[in-house]
User: What shape does this take?
Amino acid sequence: MNVLLIALLALPLFGAAGTLAPAGLFGPDPETRDRRALRFNAVVSGLTLALSVALAAAFDHAHPSRMQGVVDVSWIPALGVRFHLGVDGISLPLVVLTALLTFLCALYSAKKLPNGPDTPSARAYTGLFLLLEVGMLATFLVLDLLLFFLAFEIVLIPMFFLIARWGSGARTAAANRFILYTLLGSALMLLGFLLVGLKAGTFDMTALAAAHGHGLSHSTQLLAALAIGLGLLVKAPAWPLHSWLPDAHTAAPTTGSVLLAGVLLKMGTYGLVRVVLPVVPQGAAYFAPYLGALAAVGILYGSLVCLALARPGRGGDLKRLIAFSSVGHMGFVLLGIASLTPVGVNGALFANVAHGLVTGLLFFIVGGLKDRYGTGDLDALAGRTGAALYGRAPRLGALLAFAAVASLGLPGLAGFWGEVLAMFGAFDPVAGLSRHAFLTFMVLAGLGTLLTAGYLLQMVRRVCMGDPGEPAVAVPAELRPYEAVSWTPLAALTLVAGLWPTLLLSLSDPAVKQLLAGG
Assistant: This one.
């Protein structure tokens, strides 16, 4: 298995380096080079997905709490930094999700890459895309704090350029805000990592988790939890550190939005579970009520903003609406983590995967609508010249409705289990936390689910319903083959995860219990 872990990082890294080869290797003229570069992107990301599936097949499912496929060699001896990789039941689903979404985005890009007079070549896009995949995968595989920070940072530059060069609208301002917020958060996180590593004498995440805070004073744990937590909450994002997200999603190309929502947001919450909970448990317990409060406010805030955007006459953008919905959905993840219980943390990890599947699908569909109509403005799509998808493109409309009801948490679909388990965790938080406070958070989260249903059903009604006989600016094309290939796996997995939740919970539950117990 250790060979698979190294190959998972080496393959896209060498693929990204391959795009720097002389231009002639990709074809004699620009059009041929672009076409071959995009196919190369799909092949490399497809092989990476195959490696992740092989990793899941080789994983010892009888012992998901044990780190498997471990690679541990000295990297920077002077600093005590080691090239330490491993995978367990917490990280494995996120590794497979990352590889899957990256491959589907590569397939989609091969047919629908934004281009224009000031857009760089497809070869540049491929290089940045594969480098982004390296950083995302490494974040979930590394087991050294400084290596985790490095992987976290590798992701920022490719995503910045994807937004700034292949995006639309106010893309430069959105990319600048994205990089500014995340770099400031990363600086705080690094300070926390250095504090922990210097005080504990090691940056090894498994050793720190096993020590479970022993050797770190109470004040050290509080300071480290605050610094690391704030850095990770920027990426999550938690209210009120979320303001970079709507602009980034609105300006990003479709594939950028899918990866931003499906993977990058998960890096923050994964860091909370992997680092903060086991390494500085006293700090995590101290700040848990504050995290729960931020989560509850974020759930309500995201839902209320989405309700406002969905109202007629507000000029709400569909991508912006889904971006704000992510603030609410990630609030459930943070609420589950704040409960510090196995039930709540398992719910948070399940919701992470479910959000990646469902919101990735929503951004794909909205990107397809924007390509057809030239706008994501909800009023334009719902007026007399509106979409009326049920009548004009029924398969596209049905897929949008399916993704919406999955996002609102309909039982039997992936979105249900994570939110319910997170609220169960808040119903009975770990001993030492105020149950009255967490019951309040749970009630507010429950209200948020009702508001979520309200804005998503309003969106479906306005975009999918209407008289198809009315004049339209453009009659939308039905689901195209490359769209069906890119989107159908996400819909299928949303159904599978909803009907068979033990597929994920059997992996995460033993690992979470060990992590919280300091094993």
